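Example (one chain per record):
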Amino acid sequence: MLLTGSRVVLCRHGVTDFTASGRWDGRGGADPALNAEGHAQARDLAARVGAFIGDAPEVRVVSSSLRRAKETAAPVAELFGTGVTPRRVWDELAFGEWDGLTGDELRGEKPDELLRFWGDETFRVPGGESHVDLHTRVRPAFEKFMGFSGTTVVVTHWGPIMSCISLVLGIDLLPARRLNLAPASMTSFMVTKQGPQVEFINDLGARVTPPESI
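Predicted structure:
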């Protein structure tokens, strides 16, 4: 059940060496740590989350179970004096055999499969997950948080954030994938009397990051 006034802020993790090199990195992959730039982004994100939420009376901080998300969430949790609660449901999509490959490699070697990946929510990379699998685990967790009082900050990944946006806006995978969700960006949802609403998407404050090619 949704609770009016509840807010969920979904944040993408900071960059790793995989992110910087355009390598796909899902659950079950190499699980890299943040690099120096990623740690700086995490500190910046904490400041922006703090400025946005202010002195909200009830704040919880959750992350995916992947290292880059937990490390990005740590400064946010420190700011609010709470721990980070890792949850596997917020992990990135499992890319299976594609994990560790670059977007350029996939466009060159598997163009047809890549088109199916982005256009068919049931398509599953060998050893990986489909977008339907992702929605099945992420969306119930998101709706649960929308039923909690106060504010829930979740540090997660592009896939889960995209899934939640597409759920609230009622859009399919193909248009949803055109959303730019930069590293360390914030996307906020709030429950109103009219139902859940997207407050903003891909907020970076004053910092500008060019779109990432994956």
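Caption: Helices lie at 17-20, 36-53, 67-80, 103-109, 111-119, 131-145, 158-169, 173-176.
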